[in-house]
Amino acid sequence: MSAALRPPDIIYYLDHGNPTSPMKVYNPRKHHIPTKVPEHPVPGTAAWNDAVGMTSQALTPDQLGWTWGGDVAHMMKVWYDRQDSWDSFLSNIHSQIRLAEYQHCGFFLAPDGLTVGMGGMTPSQDRAQFLMYAVLGAPLVLFADIRRLSSGQMDLLTSPEVLSVNQDRECVMASLTQARGATEAWVKPLSDGSFAVVLLNKGVTSANVTLTTGNTGDSSDFFPAYFERYVARDLMSRSDLGDQHGDLVVEVPGMDARMIKISPSTSRLEL
């Protein structure tokens, strides 16, 4: 773990999922202690109703705490408490669309904790959940009792190449680059010049997902960068997919995901 990501002795934690609560100070020895933070919207006002109803489009980034949160906190939960279900997982990760600019080393946006091992989701759904949290650079807070995890769940949660994406030293959050039917692609630039891509299939049947790497304007999944040749690797299975030329088509099972590392051989940047 890099120095930038080393947990501090005290963690200041903003719970956006409950706009009525004050900021919490997490001390491993003293649990949560309320403290004073900038004022929340006044009860009864439109801003208050928007915050309580989580219709956050009506609030500015400053009102939501994304702009100043890094000055007072290390982590901010940006949506409701997670439930151990597929729908709750999707709802929480989608709450982080277009928020990548606000995350930086020392201030992480969180879709709440991981529910791997709690029994409410299938192994493929657990895999999709873990890969998405990793590519978002989210804090990997596990709700389950680690003493009761299966060997498969332990292998998932300790997958070294996936964890290296989560712990990348530049702390960049992945961005949603495409949503086609039941499939999505999330791209995270890495500090070594490569990209981590999670291909998510929300549907119940297998689907092919196409990563567009060429010079196709903003329809490219890597715009404004594009590249003709690259090396692809599946990080969960730790297997090389070889040298690639042109777009990459990957089959993803239903309610599952794959994490692919894309290392360009040659690239250009459109300015």
How is this structure best described in words?
With 271 residues, the protein is an alpha+beta fold. Helix content is 20%, strand content 30%. The protein is built from 7 helices and 13 strands. Strands 6-7-8-13-10-11 form a 6-stranded antiparallel sheet. Helix 5 runs parallel beside helix 6 and helix 5 packs parallel to helix 7. The N terminus is likely disordered.
Beta-strand fraction estimate: 25-35%
Average of pLDDT? 79
List segments where confidence is low: pLDDT < 50 over at least 5 consecutive residues.
Answer: 1-41, 51-58
Give the tally of β-strands.
13
Question: Keywords, please?
Answer:
single chain, 271 residues, alpha+beta, 6-stranded antiparallel sheet, 5-stranded mixed sheet, 13 strands, 20% helix, globular, disordered N terminus
Topology:
Layout: E1 11-15, E2 24-27, E3 31-34, H1 46-53, H2 61-64, H3 69-72, E4 75-77, H4 86-94, E5 108-110, H5 123-136, H6 151-157, H7 160-166, E6 175-180, E7 183-189, E8 195-201, E9 207-211, E10 225-234, E11 239-245, E12 248-252, E13 256-269
Parallel strand pairs: 1-4, 4-5
Antiparallel strand pairs: 1-2, 2-3, 6-7, 7-8, 8-13, 9-12, 10-11, 10-13
What's a quick, concise take on this entry?
By secondary structure, the protein is α+β, with helices and mostly antiparallel strands.
